[in-house]
Amino acid sequence: MTPEEAAQRQEDVINAPADLYVRACPGAGKTRTVVGRFIRTAEESAPRAVAVISFTNRAADEVSARCAEIGRPKLLMYPNFVGTFDRFIATYIVRPFGQLGGPIRVIDSWESLDVQIGAYGVQGTVSLDHFEISPDGVLRFDPRPRDPAATGTALARLEQNALQSYHALRNQGYITCDDARAYAAQLLAQHPDIVDLLRERFAEIIVDEAQDCSTEELALLTRLRDAGIPLVIVCDPHQSIYEWRDADPYTFQEFVQGMPAIELDGNWRSAPSVCALAATLRDGGPADNPVGPLADHDQPIVLIRYTGWVTSSIGERFATLVTDAGVDISQAVVLSHRANSAAAAVGAGVPNGQSNVMQLATACLRLADDRTDPRKRQREFDRIQRLLLKVLKAEVVGHSTERSAELSNVSIDWLRRSTVQLAIAVGGHDLDLNVPDWVAAARKSMKAIADTEGRTYMALGTLFPTPQNSAGKNMRSLLNAQVGAVALRHSSIHKAKGSEHRAVLVVVPRDRAAVTRTAEVTTAWEQGAACEAKRVLYVGVTRAEQICALAVPDGIADRILAILTAEGVPFTIHTV
Known about the structure:
6-stranded parallel sheet
């Protein structure tokens, strides 16, 4: 395929009539094509609207940014819609037609409101997110590995307390994204005229990253399509990595069965070796066609063999390879299925504990790190805001930050300004201080900020006690922020989805004694079998433009070498 042919496929997608199913490989220029389609349809269909729905804020933001770049920011305004599926459901179904108490606020999870559930006979508390509620209103505890045990009457009390908290929050207007989807389906079943209103409003709905649709979301899209709303479904089926949130590749294939289809298989992003490696991780089909500026690049795949557990020696070797290739280290990233493994590879351990001291220290550390992505930065900023509200004796449990400040008569402007000041002050304390001295310095900074509000506040020694088992340790060791950590960005693959980087290292962790996921993924890779964990690897490697490296434990390295050799994927080997 030539670049001209790949560009023509994009034009075909922009101009083809809906309904339409677009299969787009990584680097196919999907966002450019979606934006082109959005602009054309919105201008031709006015005053009716066009919606672009995606499943991540990153993807929605990218569409918005592209519209702004080409001078069409007004198309992002009313009556059109560009945003996530959750926001679409909230805006057009739950808020106008739902019957919840107070103004409806759709939140990511109950954790964002600090909602913890306890009960007599249960040691500790449990996040409300760890309870599942059925359509008939029955709530059951779905324990996670670190949750306290609860059985018999203690379990019944815990579930009853959780149900009471759940209904109290719903009566305040709060609803999680998961609950919003189920509630939207219920509202559509009860009020068929909602779909009629949506058909009158929208001339077309473009669904980006559609392979991530849950069964509930596919049911909603089926209703819209059956009602005559034209749909454009854009996806890469091989990037379906959300089965844990009820995304089902087989149900999705049934949904798109029979739709007119166009395939975008010209890869403008990656070098030929990356395309060849990605093809081995698919469930069949040829490699993508590299058509971009790296189409003639001959950089082989890098295989880094390691023994033992993942350590910073892996990241150090990768960083050397990147700089030797003339690539700036800021254009490189380390990824893994679990964020912990990626962090370990760059010498940035995961902070221990969830105490207020650890939350404050972690948040300030991440805010000071220019490698922290914007959305994580916002979460950490909000974490400090909520800690400040706790200092001021504000009730934060069960309320958003803004609502908590309002109920406590705390100026939101003061809160935001003070959060910046506190982050700078605490972030400036030396992590090599021993833990009691660091905590004392942090309390002093907190006191200086709280004094400016002019009200009584919590005893800081009570709210920020010195962490247990910290004798003889400095704050750096407590945070696992190792000295000499490799200056590389790192992330889980799920969070990196939709991004692209000049150089990517994907860390495959060593199996633990009772878990054999890496061995299972390797077997699926050898056999060409469908496996979500294998698709996660596919997403990771396809973020790469020029350099793609795999860090693999010595126990499976020979098996992966055999796969690459059999499939003709060029590679080099390094050992740490």
